[in-house]
Amino acid sequence: MAIFSKSNVPQFSVDVYQNEYLPEGGREVNAVVTVTATGGGTIGSAVAAPHLYSPGEGPSAAVVLMVDCSGSMDYPPTKMRNARDATAAAIDTLRDGVHFAVVAGTHLAREVYPGDGRLAVAGPDTREQSKQALRKLSAGGGTAIGTWLRRADRLLASADVAIRHGILLTDGRNEHESPEDLKAALDACAGRFTCDARGVGTDWEVKEVTGIASALLGTADIVADPAGLAADFTRMMETAMGKEVADVSLRLWTPAGATVTFVKQVAPTVEELTGRRTEAGPRAGDYPLGSWGDESRDYHLCVAVPPAAVGREMLAARVSLVIPHPGGSVQNLGAQGLVRAVWTDDLAASTSINPQVAHYTGQAELAEVIQEGLDLRKVGDTDGATAKLGRAVQLANASGNADTAKLLAKVVDVVDAATGTVRLKTKVEEADEMTLETRSTKTVRVKK
Question: Which of 32, 198, 307, 352 has its CA 20 to 30 A from that of 114?
């Protein structure tokens, strides 16, 4: 384990878990890399340069809240009121000194507060003024989420801050712009700010909301009952206020002849990172990890190495943490881990699967079969859906993922969890199915 422990900066550490032994001619090296950041509240200019602490004793930050104000937010009328209350609760959670704005989203993006392309600075007066402005929010119009995101991007770019974050709430499908328009907006915003996305009620599209959060390295969830919005928004904002370092990347170096097969986050959620690689010099690439506070995340790496004879060994990959800056400069966070390959004729050694790798391989499969099973259920393939969701029940039971097991039990009747024997329920509440789909990528940490 390597630890970065300079004064006034967070401490980052990297731990590598793997079975480095391969049979003669073996090529595939798997490892789970745990990245941990500790030392909350200690960040200073060494990491977030040139940004210093705000008056609220945290790194400089800007947040834009995007609130769906389309016509469907009036059904039932309490939904709009709950959205106003939730946004007000989030504003109350802002640290003093944080820059913020509120955007009303319809087929347009209207700045509710402070307006004129500006960001307000959180304090007693601006909080009260923003809540007064929220009271005027009303529902009417369509839904064009890409427009909201582009407006948030322009607002956030106007602030010279370390952390840029968005919170997006929608209750409907993105019907007033094409999927291509939304994708173009996400591509334009990726890497510029992170964004948490929430769907309220049951009339929105799960893959749209989870796709927004995935592209912008945030979280996604369902709030089936609008009455739960205030508590959820408060938790989201508390987490956002806990972020200390933005734009962290995992840098993966591999030797000549070795290639990266995949890189994926596996805890606290499954997130594919392979396609997000940016080249970082000879045989090195950076994978974006977003913003960090005091937290730990796990990543599964797979590297293909040249086959070798028994007794040979090599460094298959070197993992480090960096913050790339515009212009090509890079800040090394000091934490490093090594992934090794050793060829052996010891059958027991070369066929043993590292427990961390095995656990997260199962968790990734769990997320995949839930999505596949729900998709098959939607098109009426009962046998296919039963097989996939049965496998999901089996994996959730074996890995101790109790939360996912409970969600699955609302969609299938479990006959035998150990074998994955299930029956599809004839009647499933839409909110239960959407909750399972939205939370399917949440994983349980392996006990190390």
Answer: 198
At residue 220 the predicted structure's pLDDT band, cuts being 50, 70 and 90, is: very high
pTM above 0.85, yes or no: yes
The yes-or-no verdict on residue 4 having pLDDT over 50 is: no
* Cβ pair 187, 150 in contact under 8 A: no
Q: Is residue 323's pLDDT more than 90?
A: yes
Contact criterion met (CB below 8 Å) for 285 and 260: yes
Q: What's the sign of the alpha-carbon dihedral 191, 193, 194, 197?
A: negative
Task: Label residues 322-332 b or e (16+ Cβ within 10 Å = b).
Answer: bbbeeeeebbe
Find all residues with CB under 8 Å of 349, minimum gap 6, and list them: 19, 21
